[in-house]
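Reviewers of the previous submission asked for a worked example of the structure-prediction workflow described in the proposal, so we include one complete record here. The input consisted solely of the amino acid sequence. No template or homolog information was supplied to the procedure at any stage.
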Amino acid sequence: MDGTMRICIDYRQLNKLMVRNKYPLPRINDLFDQCRGAFVFSKIDLHSGYHQLRVKEVDVHKITFRTRYGHYKFLVIPFGLTNAPTALMELMNRVFQPYLDLIEYHPGKANVVADARLFDDGSLLVKLQVKPTWIDQI
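From that input alone, the workflow returned the following structure tokens.
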């Protein structure tokens, strides 16, 4: 956590009514198998991940919430909806598909810096750091 405050809404009742998206999330063991033999890892942090996914206009009223200051509607997917993780994973896989091998691991630090420039196509906002964080182990 970075210490910022976040709105948290209880969508349990809505989630019970939603048709679940069956898009498969990655299994951690499969990810570890793919990284076998790699020794330099990088992290790509999406800026406000779910908030980059717009809600269909016909569905906005379903995620309206009330505070003591009035009613508000999310125009983007809020945290807590049952299909949020799969929707974000599906978009990330579509955007990053050409670069999946580059994202998961790198043969050396020079490749990481060069590969970071590939994600500037405007589909997703990535939190860029001036100096990459090097992770030598998982």
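The first strand starts at residue 45 and ends at 46. We consider this example representative of the routine output the project will generate in years two and three.
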